[in-house]
Amino acid sequence: MSLKNLKKTTKKLGKVYTRQLKKGQKDPFRLSLQAYSPQVFAQDLNILRKEIKALKKPQISKDVNGKLRTTMPIITLSEVECIKLYKTLFNKFKRSQKKLTFNNKNKGSDGVVLGDLLYEELKTHARSKLGGGDWLIAPCKNLNSADRGVKSLFATKIAALEIANRKKNDGPYRSDDIEESFIAKRLTGFQSGHVPGGPNKGQEYRPGIGLTEYEKTQTGIQLGHGDKGQPTFAYKAEEAKKIIQEAKKLDQKDKDRLIQKIEQKEQELGISVEHKESVGLAGGIKKAYKFLLFTGQQTKENVRDQKKEVVKGTDMKNFMVDQILSDNQTKIDKTIGSLLLHRLTKRNKGVKNTSKRYRPKRLIKSNEKTTPSKTKYKVKTRRVINVGGGLQAGAFASKVIKSTKKAKQSKPITTSVSTVGSPLHLLAIFNANLEQAIRDNMGGRALHNRTGRFAGSVSVLNIIPVRGTTGTIQYTYQRDPYEVFEGQGGRDPRLLIDNTLREQAAEMALGKFTTQRV
Questions:
Q1: Which contacts (CB < 8 Å, 24+ apart) does range 513-517 have?
Q2: pLDDT band at 18 (very low <50, low <70, confident <90, very high)
Q3: pLDDT given at position 131
Q4: Are the C-beta atoms of residues 255 and 272 closer than 8 Å to each other?
Q5: Greater model confidence, 428 or 476
Q6: Cα–Cα distance between 430 and 320 in angstroms, integer?
Q7: Which of 135, 374, 394, 516 has its CA 20 to 30 A from that of 24?
């Protein structure tokens, strides 16, 4: 594979796995996934009822200053009225999509004809995937259309009805434009305390106080693929296989080998992108397409699922960088990742590419030599012995030629970031069993494992290289409510995490390092 083609393949894979995002920038791959056509939107009304009941209750939670604050119910409308409006909007959206999108004229992202036959196929297959629940199902153009046509529209209309109801009853609740925007954004799971649009755009809802933790992370309905469908990183793995398969001048054997490794990792993580075929109208030609199912999920459940997805997604990303993009059969040759890893670390402040194995081919010279190794030979010889009477008897003896050179005793090895691979690889190793290791070390004078939330919240975020050491391991945990135990001797969560990380480091024979809570 030429260097030019290697760069092209590396660049394509880099866009999927190593793109550096600016603050507030959304992952372009996730955005493209949301726009993929066709998809199926499903909403369990039981989930919606549960969320509405929660929004109708006052809540006690901490504000941005860490003070407990009791907030008024976000909506006062009846549950029946809210569900009735949602069903009306959903069914209207469903009819509109069938008429305007699945009209036998439009085509999906992969060229499949969007018609009546495909519409019924999508609906039937979605029912088989969803299982129990009070489901509303609508095949549609994509997630973005459902966001505009159902979720955001429902939130806007409920907010308007709520404000009208408050003005009518003249109660203790706010009823201005900012309050209306606040209600709408709570229903959609919007996590900022600032008004996003209209004449009051950018204004803070509660100046100096902001949203409470409950309002920010536990209100509303969000749309996503990870609940009943597949998470985003599953589709990234699928895209990587496609890029490898389409790579020009790459031997098919190498393609098959790389794709097989990705599929083994997919099986390990329990992910798979489902492909379906639909018969088009033109001559009965079959067209393949990806089956994408997304659902409306409570924000608090979505946030919880995202944390789990981040762990698996990071695992898959590290695997791609270390095992696929940096895979090679000989030193440097046929390496897709040597260029990619160099490009990844080149502009990443604080991260150095110290491994010669993963530097671009044009930057180093091969030091491989073909010196023969010293071997021990065992030679069998036959001795002939004359016995009286002229008879001969054969006897075998072994002559062993041994090397007289003594083997050198190996010294204990301590590893650093450069010897185990990239910082990303080491980070994945730490996070793989961190939750269970934290649980094992809990109890006694340390924090006790009661709900599992603390252990599940601990995560290594970054490893900053420091000359002469393994580096600084930065980690985090759920600060609310466990931060109150910091400075309380054996109950300090930082001591528990530090001890656990050092146990893991000892198993990997890492050298000196420091830990830092961020």
A1: 513/466, 513/469, 513/470, 513/471, 513/472, 513/473, 514/466, 514/469, 514/472, 514/473, 515/472, 515/473, 515/474, 515/475, 516/472, 516/473, 516/474, 516/475, 517/474, 517/475, 517/476, 517/477
A2: low
A3: 80
A4: no
A5: 476
A6: 17
A7: 516
Q: How far is CA 479 from the centre of its chain?
A: 22
Rounded to 5°, the CA angle 397-402-407 comes to: 150
**Is it the case that residue 402 has pLDDT exceeding 80?**
no
Residue in the block written with tokens 């010897």: 419
Question: Is 354 buried (19+), middle (13-18) or exposed (0-12) by CB count in 10 A?
Answer: middle
How far apart, in whole angstroms, are the C-alpha atoms of residue 190 and residue 205?
Answer: 13
Within 189-298, where are the H helices? 213-217, 232-246, 252-269
Per-residue pLDDT tens for 283-320? 445 667 888 899 998 888 877 777 777 788 888 888 77
Per-residue pLDDT at 250: 72
CATH 3.30.300 residue spans of the chain: 417-517
* Crossing angle of helices 177-188 and 153-169, rounded to 10°: 140
Going by C-beta distance under 8 Å and a sequence separation of 6 or more, which residues neighbour residue 495?
446
99-148 pLDDT tens trace: 999 999 999 998 899 999 899 989 998 998 888 889 999 999 999 999 99
With a CB cutoff of 8 Å and minimum separation 6, the contacts of 283 are none
Query: How large is the average pLDDT for residues 172-194?
Result: 82
Task: Write the CATH number of the domain with boundaries 417-517.
Answer: 3.30.300
Helix (H) or strand (E) holding 498: helix 493-507
CB 324 within 8 A of CB 251: no
- CA distances (Å), origin 135, targets 128, 226, 342, 402: 12, 17, 49, 77
Token representation of residue 400: 């062993």
Q: How many residues does the chain have?
A: 518
* CA pair distance 317, 312, nearest whole angstrom: 9
Using CA atoms, how far apart are residues 217 and 300, in angstroms rounded to an integer? Answer: 6
Q: Rounded to whole angstroms, how far apart are CA atoms 270 and 189?
A: 28
Q: Coil, strand, or helix at residue 438?
A: helix
In this structure, what token pair is assigned to residue 311?
């762990």
First-to-last alpha carbon distance for the chain, in angstroms, is 43
